[in-house]
Amino acid sequence: MSRPFASVRARATLAATLVVAVALVAAGTAVLLSLRSNLLGEAGTQAERSAREVATGLAFAKPYDDLPLDVDDRPVQVVDEEGRLVAASEGLERISGTGVDAVKPQPAATARDGGDEDDDAADDDDHGESLEPGEIGARTTVSDGSATIDGDTEDYRFAAVPVETEDRGRLTVYAGAPLSAEHGAVNTALTVMLIGFPVLLAVVAWVTWLVTRRALRPVEGIRREMAAITASEDLARRVPVPDTHDEVARLASTTNETLTALESSVERQRRFVADASHELRSPIASLRTQLEVAAAHPELLDLDGAVEDTVRLQRLAADLLLLARLDAGERPADARVDLAALAREAAEGRRGVRVRAEEDVTVAGSRGQLERVLANLLDNAQRHTRSAVEVSVRRDEGPHGAGGGGQTAVVAVADDGEGVPAADRERIFERFVRLDAARSRDDGGAGLGLAIARDVALRHGGTLTVRDTPAGGALFELRLPGA
Prior knowledge:
By secondary structure, the protein is α+β, with helices and mostly antiparallel strands. It has 3 domains: 1-232, PAS domain (Beta-Lactamase), CATH 3.30.450; 247-327, Signal transduction histidine kinase, dimerisation/phosphotransfer (DHp) domain (Helix Hairpins), CATH 1.10.287.130; 335-481, Heat Shock Protein 90, CATH 3.30.565. It has 9 helices and 13 strands. A hairpin with a 4-residue loop joins strand 1 and strand 2.
């Protein structure tokens, strides 16, 4: 059952490991390149220092035998302007990278005829720099090569320094500095990285796996509890809320709020079905009894009672159907309805009902549903009034309940009865609620009228409330946004 969460952990671990791997490779490459560049620069500096030390001796007209050619067993060549090797380190057996492959000095009397290639190299080393006798060139040429001294072959960085002598002309000194330190340092760093990076990546993956598992543990608890709720159908249960104050805690809180709303909705639906079944049972049982009596004794048929039960059953079915449509979220029509005219029509033929209405008080909505609201309010008022019911229709510039601000249409239905106790002013809008338990079902209805009126008002973006009149009766006030 924990496969999805293991998959999340795996993806998070893989992503974190890949990110760290890319960062480590980039950082390692930068470190290696920087290390190699610094070490090569240091080798070049050492080679140039050695070459200038030899060039200084040449500038002071020292003989070749007195030059420091064998310091630290580094390869040194001294080449004249014709490309002949005139001095070299002792024990030099092979050299490459300087442009002059000779390792044994050649006397001037035995100059090589085929030294064109070496001459070109010597000319290249001069770089066209003009020097005075005894002056050392300021420009240094650096190259990489290798050399064998006393049987040991190594890679070197060579520095070429020109020097102008008084008696021997233009000479070029090639001196090398070993690259073994650079190679060793780079190889050591690379070895450390090749060993350390996988270990570090393994640590990162392990830590990420543990942290992700710990972070997802509350989610797994929520999932298990939701699965148990689904299996048991016990909506009273709630998922555990971790004490972390993070997104997972907010998810658990939201889930519990959803479960609370679902539990309330299911409970309301159960009560509705139970109450509807109870309310339907009475007229159906009464009607069946009358029909069975009529079948056995036609002369005892109470036709008026049968018609009355049928009409009552029809009204109850219509109310239940309207509530079902409202619960399903049916949107009201967008027609313009004149509330003043609608109030006069609803009051027509009703005894003791007076209407005071301003003209042109219009709203947008369903004429049939709003007509049902006024009829239900008038039916309720006439059941509780002592003598008269007053209906007023007006415009109000104040805010209405659901729409915020702007013009509001107000319909007030007031009676001079006993009023509604403050504790019951919200309860009377619940379905199948009748405050007067002693009143007969025939006189008091099924307790759906005010519930339907409130739902219709809300669907039209308005409100329906009740309060006391100055005379002590009940005042039901319907407020709707003006058209």
